[in-house]
Structures are given as structure tokens and as C-alpha cells.
Design a protein that fits this description.
About 30% of the residues lie in helices and about 20% in strands. With about 500 residues, the protein is of the alpha/beta class. A seven-stranded mixed sheet has the order 8-7-16-17-18-15-21. Strands 10-2-1-14-22 form a five-stranded parallel sheet, with helices on one face. It has a three-stranded antiparallel sheet with strand order 5-9-6. It is globular. The relative contact order is 0.19.
Length: about 500
């Protein structure tokens, strides 16, 4: 039996702790915040009309079988803890120009039919051709890449790729290039581009292999957890406690002791004595681990782009807007938005708030999260990271956040959804807030941007492991849970 310390009680940390405790290890989790969940955050606002509850992180659960496997591995059933509701539409896409909307769903044939009805038979045929390619990418990657440790280009090269798989994955091609090759309708290209941003990446630079992201969502479905996605953190915490894991919130790990090339434990803020450990699992951003938690700063072995961030409005809205659970409102053009969000320091282009951004609105039809006759709106706009460098924006600059919030509400009004006269309240969350609240450098949502090669799960010292969205296999709830599975499998059960 190993003494294992987990740094961070996000989904990755809790999932790893539960798996390890279920196999006989002694596990303690330290979390700097006062509650668990990490980026899977929640916020409640009390008003005279009643309480509004918002998910401030993920708003969609995909690949639910990953979580069924997780709970079964810890001796439980997912349905005993969570109430999953399938979504149709998964996302409603509203395009510029006032044309038809497009509702995505988890039936590929039905989605192709919806594309045909909205955009014509050629567009539907284009999508089906892309879909066949996406299936090959998914089949080539989900078992050999997403469920195994991958820490270097050599690890990827060592996989038994078939020639057809390599042709589908198209190393060197971008997601934008893939869309332009296969899709003639600009609205479908816009839709495909957007999946790169779901992994924190610029579609003009993101690998074509990210076509597996829409494939997973639109094949296996998108799900809402009644009561909010934050109930997943509650369920994982319960599993951990039932398995004997010690979870200490409000406790900051300031250093990982790793003298002599292996871990010995961790140091806590305000505590003189170190906490001994045979194994340390860090559910912190990989950059934070390498730069701030090790005895001496180290360079990440994998050179990866930092993820984009998000600018968020939490709105209490009176009345019924008739929106789908998820709605995406696209701008007239996306390249100007991507230039603003990502910047191009090499070309002298500074990051800035996008003037005409894509706007994501989540409105859960769930009485548990809003008073009768009202809606709780989570509004997200892709944004540059917080900071002062050319590729970032100083979101703490006086007046900027409120002015940009006004702009987002104006944009929604321009796109046919004006709620400015129905607001009970609005709260603003900037990348600077995520930077401070979740220890996410710059407020980067996924830590590192989408790609096949991310920081490895195996750390630079023996006994040190990394889980979470900034590490392999990537961001998003199922990928984070898979990182926990990879690490738990590599550590092995206590009785080995």
C-alpha cells in the first residue's frame, strides 16, 4: 500500500483518488479552494424571486461511458449518484444573415438530414464524407491514444498505425484545412472550426485530428446532469469519502518535495512539517507544476500552445426565451475573432477583446437551478488569456470588464436575443478571475491547446504523476477522467 497525495480536487484529482483508494492505497487530497470541483465550478445567487445556480465551467457531459466505467471501477453505479438527461438538440447553431438554424443531435443520419433540410443536399453529402473520415480518426485514436500514456513523439510513432489511419489523421494538416477540403458550405466550415476552440485551440493551427471531437459528441451524445454539472463533483467526492480518502479543502500545497530524482511528499502553506508520500499526483496545471511546485523550475518536455480563455456573464433573466439548452450565435466572420483571441505576436498583432465574437448561451430547463418564471443564463465568449504580454489582455484594467459585458449584451440583441430589459442581475467573470480562483495560468480553460501531444502524465521525478486537462489526453470532462484512468493504471493496485 502506497501513501499517495493528490494535489487538487478537480475532476481529475477526485477520479484518480477514488480509483487508487478502490485498489487499496492510502490517499489524501489537498485542495486550495474551500470546495471541490476545480474548474467544474458552481455559483449561487439569491434574489427576492429565488435562488439561481450556475455551472461556471463545463455545461455538457460527453462520452458518458467513461464515467460509467469510472464509477464501476470504484464499486458503484453512476446512475445511483447522477441523473443524466440526453440533449436534443445538443447545440442549436444560429448563423449570420438570418438564415436557417441547425440543431445537432446524436443520430448521424438524422443530423445529415437536418443539414440537408437547412443547407441542401450537397452540404449533407459533404458532411457525410467528412463524417466517414472522422470515424476513422476516432477509431484510430480512442483506444491507442486516449487511453494510454503518451509523453513524446516517439510514443506516438511507436503505435501500430495503419496506413489508412495515418491518412485520415493527416499529420501536418489543420482542422481549418480539413474543413475547406471537405465542406463547401461556409456555415458548416464555421461549425467545424468551432470544435477547435472547444479544446482551447485556433482552428487555423489545430491539427486535423481534432475532427474526432465532433465525432465523439455527435455519435455518443451530449448530456446534462439534472441539478447542474457540478453534481458530478459532489458524486466523486462522495465516492472518495466512502472509500476512505481524506479530502482537505482550504489547504494549499506550496511545493512537491522531489530531492534525488523522486518524490518524498509535499509542503503545505502555514505548516512547518512536510507531508510524506510515496506517490504524488498533481491535478494542477502542468505549467504550475513544472514552474512553481517543483524544488527548481523545469521546462515542460512537450512544447504546447496555451489554451484560450473565456469571458463569462451570469445572467438572471425573467420570462421564457425559448432557447435550446445550448445555443451558439456565430458572427459574420470568424478570423477577426480568432486574431483577437489568440493574437499574433510574431506579426505584431496584440490580443484584444473580440468586437464581434461568437456567443455561447446555456439555458438549462431545470427547476433546480432557477426560480419559476425565470432563466439562469451562462453566456460565454472566447477570450484572450489574462496578462500583459502581446498574446494576452489585462482583464483587470479598470472599466474593461463591464464595458465588454455591455458589448456582449448588445451583440446578443443584434442577433435577435435582447434580454437587456429582462435582467434581474448580471455577474461578470473574466479570465483574470479563473486565473485567481482555479490557479489556471492566465485563465486558460484547458491549460494547453488541443493536439495529440500534450504534457505527459508521468512527471519529471519518480513517483510524480500529472492528471487533468493540461495533460494527456486533453481537456474536457471525459478526457480528464481518462487521464485519471491512465495514471491509476500506471501506479497499479496496492496488492501488486
Amino acid at each position: 500500500m502506497a501513501r499517495i497525495v493528490v494535489v487538487g480536487a478537480g475532476v481529475g484529482g477526485l477520479a484518480t483518488a477514488a480509483r487508487l483508494a478502490a485498489t487499496g492505497h492510502e490517499v489524501t487530497v489537498f485542495e486550495r479552494a474551500d470546495s471541490v470541483g476545480g474548474k467544474l465550478g458552481r455559483h449561487t445567487r439569491d434574489t427576492p424571486a429565488g435562488a439561481f445556480t450556475f455551472d461556471t465551467g463545463p455545461s455538457l457531459l460527453t462520452l458518458p461511458e467513461v464515467f460509467h466505467e469510472l464509477f464501476e471501477a470504484t464499486g458503484a453505479k453512476l446512475d445511483e449518484y447522477l441523473d443524466l438527461a440526453p440533449l436534443d438538440p445538443i447545440v442549436r447553431h444560429v448563423f449570420p444573415g438570418g438564415g436557417p438554424t441547425l440543431d445537432s443531435c446524436a443520430d448521424p443520419a438524422e443530423f445529415a438530414a437536418r443539414i440537408g433540410a437547412a443547407f441542401g443536399d450537397r452540404a449533407a453529402a459533404d458532411w457525410q464524407r467528412l463524417w466517414r473520415r472522422a470515424a476513422r480518426v476516432w477509431n484510430a485514436s480512442h483506444a491507442d491514444v486516449l487511453r494510454r500514456p503518451v509523453g513524446s513523439p516517439l510514443d506516438l510513432a511507436a503505435l501500430a498505425w495503419r496506413l489508412g489511419d495515418l491518412a485520415a489523421i493527416a499529420p501536418g494538416r489543420t482542422l481549418r484545412g480539413l474543413g475547406r477540403r471537405h465542406l463547401s458550405d461556409p456555415r458548416l466550415r464555421m461549425l467545424l472550426d468551432r470544435y477547435a476552440t472547444y479544446t482551447g485551440a485556433d482552428p487555423r493551427r489545430a491539427p486535423a485530428a481534432l475532427v474526432a471531437v465532433p465525432y465523439a459528441e455527435l455519435t455518443f451524445g451530449g448530456w446534462y446532469l439534472r441539478g447542474g454539472l457540478g453534481t458530478l463533483a459532489d458524486a466523486l467526492l462522495t465516492r472518495c469519502l466512502d472509500l476512505g480518502v481524506v479530502v482537505r479543502t482550504g489547504t494549499t500545497v506550496t511545493r512537491i518535495d522531489a530531492a534525488g530524482g523522486r518524490v518524498h511528499g509535499v509542503r503545505l502553506a502555514g505548516v512547518a512539517a512536510p507531508v510524506p508520500a510515496d506517490v504524488v499526483v498533481a491535478n494542477a496545471d502542468a505549467l504550475t507544476v513544472y514552474r512553481d511546485l517543483l524544488p527548481s523550475p523545469r521546462r515542460l518536455a512537450a512544447l504546447t500552445d496555451r489554451s484560450l480563455a473565456g469571458f463569462v456573464l451570469l445572467l438572471g433573466v425573467s420570462g421564457d426565451s425559448g432557447l435550446a439548452h445550448h445555443t451558439v450565435f456565430f458572427p459574420r466572420g470568424t478570423d477577426a475573432e480568432f486574431d483577437a483571441v489568440f493574437g499574433h505576436p510574431g506579426r505584431g498583432v496584440r490580443a484584444r477583446p473580440a468586437a464581434d465574437p461568437t456567443v455561447f448561451v446555456t439555458v438549462a430547463d431545470d427547476p433546480a437551478v432557477r426560480p419559476d418564471g425565470h432563466e439562469a443564463w451562462f453566456v460565454l465568449v472566447n477570450a484572450a488569456r489574462h496578462g500583459t504580454a502581446a498574446g494576452a489582455v489585462d482583464w483587470r484594467r479598470p472599466g474593461l470588464a463591464e464595458a465588454y459585458a455591455d458589448r456582449i449584451l448588445d451583440v446578443l440583441a443584434e442577433r435577435g436575443v435582447d434580454v437587456r430589459d429582462r435582467l434581474l442581475f448580471r455577474e461578470v467573470r473574466t479570465p483574470a478571475d479563473l486565473h485567481a480562483d482555479a490557479a489556471a495560468p492566465g485563465g486558460a480553460i484547458h491549460g494547453t491547446a488541443g493536439g495529440l501531444l500534450r504534457p505527459a502524465n508521468r512527471g519529471p521525478a519518480a513517483g510524480l504523476w500529472l492528471v487533468g486537462g493540461s495533460t494527456h489526453p486533453g481537456g474536457g470532462l471525459p478526457m480528464v477522467a481518462l487521464s485519471a484512468q491512465i495514471v491509476a493504471d500506471e501506479i497499479g493496485p496496492a496488492w501488486d
